[in-house]
Design goal:
By secondary structure, the chain is α/β, with parallel strands linked by helices. It has 2 domains: 170 residues, Peroxisomal Thiolase, Chain A, domain 1 (3-Layer(aba) Sandwich); 143 residues, Peroxisomal Thiolase, Chain A, domain 1. The strands form 4 sheets. It has a 5-stranded mixed sheet with strand order 1-7-6-4-5, with helices on both faces. Strands 8-13-12-11 form a 4-stranded mixed sheet, sandwiched between helices. A two-stranded antiparallel sheet has the order 2-3. It binds oxa(dethia)-CoA. Oxa(dethia)-CoA binds next to helix 2, helix 6, helix 7 and strand 12.
Length: 330
Amino acid sequence: MTEASPGSLRSLVTGVGGYLPSDIVTNTDLAKFVDTNDEWIVERTGIRQRHRAAEGEFTSDLATVAAQRALAAAGRKASEVDLIIVATTTPDLTFPSVATMVQYKIGAPVGIAFDVQAVCSGFVYAMSVADGFVARGLSKCALVIGAETMTRLMDWADRGTCVLFGDGAGAVVLEPQKGQGRTSDRGLLGFSLRADGSKKDLLFVDGGPSSTGTVGHLRMLGNQVFRHAVVNISEAIEASAAVAGVTMAEVDWFIPHQANQRILEGVAKRVGIPEEKVISTVALHANTSAASIPLALNHGIEDGRIKPGQLLLLEAMGGGLTWGACVLRL
Ligand code: UT7
């Protein structure tokens, strides 16, 4: 994305909402059936607990609550929503999309609705896709949602992965707002997206409709993903800041994908963001894939730290590999 021309539209976040299922699974709960312990999980990942969707509670249900909360925060009604994009890798069904299910469940009128599949990077990808509608005046009220039931992809005998993931959903409302073409504009200011399909075997699910005909389980070479994460994300962050025309010193809040506390800290250190500007929620809900950034954003707004007018830096990395970053002023 190039710098917007004077007077052009910006995609402004006008409301944020989150939802975590009520069932909490602690590290100690997991240690009852897999060879792990609270000390290892906390020390290596920072995770203390994760939420698990109830039987019969699906990704679209999580997404629907998050969307309704984001609409309420924005002061908008479902009847005004004309675009819904859901970032998910755990849809209720192979098709139709979760987005169309959310559209029906919230009671939104006929409009545009589809899913984006970029795994943990999904929310950053979906924001950039939505910007293509909102900042061109093609959508007046868009919902961008990250929603996942990652626990449904776990091999509960694989301690290297099953302790890392959880379920949840987060959503934002995006609306067009006239900007001045300056970095002081509120709204989405820049993003950078990356994918490298040659790294597929580092993080993937070993099933699917066209191959095995099954859902499959998540497989990950954790330490290799870890190494790629810190290096790759840092490059994408610097690229997105350059596009937005801002420096790291101007960033008020760094809202990373919540996969591992050590990755969050490693990336922040590498790009020169101080610890106190990092929003971390990984201890509370583990890795919720595409939902983690909007959940962390919602958390920071609810506890009063993140305020309108502040400059936010979002970033993520996930299966594909995919990764990316996004700079916006709230
Ligand atoms: O959102 C998508 C992106 N995903 C990520 O960002 C995840 C990236 N990777 C990571 O977060 C880390 O690599 C992990 C948390 C997955 C693993 O941490 P690590 O420091 O890289 O550990 P490791 O895989 O090198 O394993 C170290 C040891 C091994 O034992 P040995 O071989 O040294 O005897 C593992 O078997 O830790 C063992 N181990 C465990 N021990 C207790 C692995 N998982 C567990 C466990 N409990 N749950």
